[in-house]
Design goal:
The complex is a heterodimer of chains A (115) and B (111). Chain A is mostly beta strands. Chain A has a single domain (5-96), classed as Immunoglobulins (Immunoglobulin-like, Sandwich). Chain A has strands at 5-7, 10-13, 19-24, 31-37, 43-50, 53-57, 65-68, 75-79, 88-95, 105-106, 110-114. In chain A, the strands form two sheets. In chain A, strands 2, 4, 5, 6, 9, 10 and 11 form a seven-stranded mixed sheet that branches. A four-stranded antiparallel sheet of chain A has the order 1-3-8-7, with no helix packed on it. Chain A is globular and about 40 Å long. Chain B is built from no helices and twelve strands. The chains are: A mainly beta (115), B mainly beta (111).
Chain lengths: 115, 111
């Protein structure tokens, strides 16, 4: 069964450092998403991406964040200068399309710990 | 914006007990409804979904959910839980293309 894969599963970084979280969406999917979940809180939408550009982003997704699809398979989330409050589980997801009766498939997440 | 509420943060049951997890949402327009489950160390997996039609939806592993439009609810049920159902359960609502999640309910089932 096709699945979304994320690497690494756990990343520890020092405050102020840049991190790149990687995702390989399902191959025939066209829409990609990043969500995060701070410990004890809701899963929050960060950004959606289609046709090599951001479709929608939340208020959380400020200038410190960027996304990229550097090649035909990877979808990355970069945090330029990490803060303690960026510590969270980050989930990547993909779907065939954004509208209509379609579901998102999630990766297993990357736990980011900023120290 | 859509708001999704899961009222139970942690539910503890014995095996064979019945389960009902509540989920309510705020936006009254066209919605797609989902329950996802996350087993320890694993990714979010789709348990069941509602798009249209019969408001009683059956999912994997004996789970079902009922969409009650008038109550803006999509409660998850299982008549008899097993130890292997121990996981975190997330209700999600898709509105205008975006998925909104509830906070999640941690279910612990004692053997």
């Amino acid at each position: 069964e096709p699945e979304v894969t994320q690497t690494p599963s756990h990343q520890v970084t020092q405050m102020g450092q840049e991190v790149i979280l990687r995702c390989v969406p399902i191959s025939n999917h066209l829409y990609f998403y990043w969500y995060r979940q701070i410990l004890g809180q809701k899963v929050e939408f960060l950004v959606s991406f289609y046709n090599n550009e951001i479709s929608e982003k939340s208020e959380i997704f400020d200038d410190q964040f960027s996304v990229e699809r550097p090649d035909g398979s990877n979808f990355t989330l970069k945090i330029r200068s990490t803060k303690l409050e960026d510590s969270a589980m980050y989930f990547c997801a993909s779907s065939e399309r954004v509208s209509g009766n379609t579901e998102a498939f999630f990766g297993q997440g990357t736990r980011l710990t900023v120290v | 914006a859509q708001s999704v509420s899961q009222h139970n943060h942690h539910v503890i049951l014995s095996e064979a007990a019945s389960l009902e997890l509540g989920c309510n949402y705020s936006y009254g327009g066209t919605v797609n409804l989902f329950w996802y489950v996350q087993y320890p160390g694993q990714h979010l997996q789709l348990l069941l979904k509602y798009f249209s039609g019969d408001p009683l939806v059956k999912g994997i592993k004996g789970f079902e959910a009922e969409f009650i439009k008038s109550k803006f609810s999509f409660n998850l049920r299982k008549p008899s839980v097993q130890w292997s159902d121990t996981a975190e359960y997330f209700c999600a609502v898709k509105t205008l293309g975006r998925l909104y999640f509830g906070r999640g309910t941690q279910l612990t089932v004692w053997p």
